[in-house]
Design a protein that fits this description.
9% of the residues lie in helices and 38% in strands. By secondary structure, the protein is mainly beta. The strands form three sheets. Strands 1, 3, 4, 6, 11, 12, 13 and 17 form an eight-stranded antiparallel beta sheet that branches. The protein has a seven-stranded antiparallel beta sheet with strand order 2-5-14-7-8-9-10, with no helix packed on it. Strands 15-16 form a two-stranded antiparallel ribbon.
Length: 243
């Protein structure tokens, strides 16, 4: 077989195997921290079409540790006030879910499971407890909780995660019902019509008044306008697509 023909077959096979996201136009944040950042462990990229500037706070870093292999990247948080954020007007608009459908998802890995640890939320800054229009965290009482400040927890699930384990956490809302998944399994749901009007942008790895994650986050993705999951599903087995 000629080299040209072999190359053509390889190209066709590669194209057929490529994974794309049908709803990528609705993705408003995607932190999959690939090495396209020049392998800089202190520079963070948003791979959504927004291409937000992500601000590093504290000693948050990224490295080659993911749920999939040692060839990917994830964000490391020390649990001592480290977090990533974007408070621009564009970010505020992008996380304004209103009363519509949405999906919030990510991989999380705990080095410690004690105390309240933030995963991702919408707030004007980490010291402004009470401004979150929505939040997702592991609270100090042993619950995985999603909610909004003015109404409290909307979804809450008693959870005892282990250290040293990757978990795929997903929150969706579809036609007035909110769902919470852990590793693709539906753990709780509730009727919900809360108006999530954004107040301040996106914070990753922290909750409210400084309760930061002690561990790693990978493939943080927000989809505004579509509920990707409403029943049990298989978590991703590779990095989320960037187109």
């Amino acid at each position: 077989m000629s080299g040209i023909l072999q190359g053509l077959i390889a190209s066709i096979s590669s194209a057929a195997a490529a994974v794309t996201d049908t709803y990528f136009n609705l993705v408003t944040l995607l932190l999959n921290t690939t090495s396209t950042n020049g392998a800089q462990n202190n520079t963070f990229l948003d791979s959504s079409t927004n291409n937000f500037t992500i601000t590093r706070n504290g000693n948050t870093t990224q490295g080659t540790f993911t749920p999939f292999s040692q060839t990917g990247w994830s964000n490391y948080f020390s649990g001592s006030g480290d977090y990533l954020c974007n408070y621009t007007q564009q970010a505020i608009n992008s996380t304004n879910f209103g009363t519509g459908d949405f999906t919030i998802e990510c991989w999380v890995y705990f080095n410690s499971t004690s105390g309240d640890q933030g995963i991702i939320d919408d707030a004007s800054n980490p010291s402004s407890a009470g401004t979150q229009k929505w939040f997702l965290h592991k609270d100090g009482s042993g619950n995985l909780a999603f909610g909004q400040h003015s109404v409290g927890n909307i979804l809450s699930y008693s959870w005892s995660p282990s250290t040293g384990t990757w978990y795929y956490i997903t929150i969706t809302r579809a036609s007035g019902t909110a769902y919470m998944f852990i590793n693709g399994s539906l753990v709780t749901s509730a009727s919900n019509s809360t108006n999530f009007a954004s107040s301040g942008g996106v914070q990753v790895g922290i909750f409210a008044s400084g309760n930061s994650l002690n561990g790693y986050l990978d493939d943080v993705r927000i989809t505004n306008g579509y509920a990707r999951y409403t029943s049990t599903f298989t978590p991703p087995t590779s990095a989320l697509p960037t187109y």
